[in-house]
């Protein structure tokens, strides 16, 4: 009688999760380090319409890295860790920095060109909404992820069409700019459509 052994089952690699955790933690450390700079750092990097008109274009991007205070920064930090837990593939992919640049700069440019009433803005939440949509959309066939995606989109729509909760604004210490959340979702949709178009292109 000959014996036989079955090939060991391959365990799913944990590298993407580790890479996502590392990337999310590094991003969180950057936000907290800039928050420690307090008013001088915030005033140098925030979205300021008059300063941008004077040529300080970096503020279109850097505004997303500074916050009103520690509560604001920590709230977005929790959101980053939650997003990395639900959609690690977004943080682990090689295009993450490009996605961050696209969302951050895109929100800044669209805000500057389309919302002249917004004079100042800080916070990562607009980019974070975009990351949630990009990460959850490919997983929409999973019931939990579909619910999370609906919650993100519904909350962004609620804030834009109705009003942010006063308790949430009191928590972060300022007015919530719901337009930034809407723009993050809009740009995430554009990113997903572009990726789908690239995948459909014939390969040589």
Automatic annotation (TrEMBL):
Residues 1-35 form the signal peptide. It comes from the Bacteria. It holds the Pfam family Rhomboid. This is Rhomboid family GlyGly-CTERM serine protease. PANTHER family: RHOMBOID PROTEIN 2, RHOMBOID-RELATED PROTEIN. It is a multi-pass membrane protein. GO terms for cellular component: membrane. The chain crosses the membrane at residues 61-84, 96-115, 121-137, 144-161, 181-198. GO terms for biological process: proteolysis. It is found in: Membrane. Belongs to the peptidase S54 family. Keywords: Hydrolase, Membrane, Protease, Signal, Transmembrane, Transmembrane helix. One of its GO terms (molecular function) is serine-type endopeptidase activity. Its main location: membrane. It comes from Lampropedia hyalina DSM 16112. Residues 55-193 form the Peptidase S54 rhomboid domain.
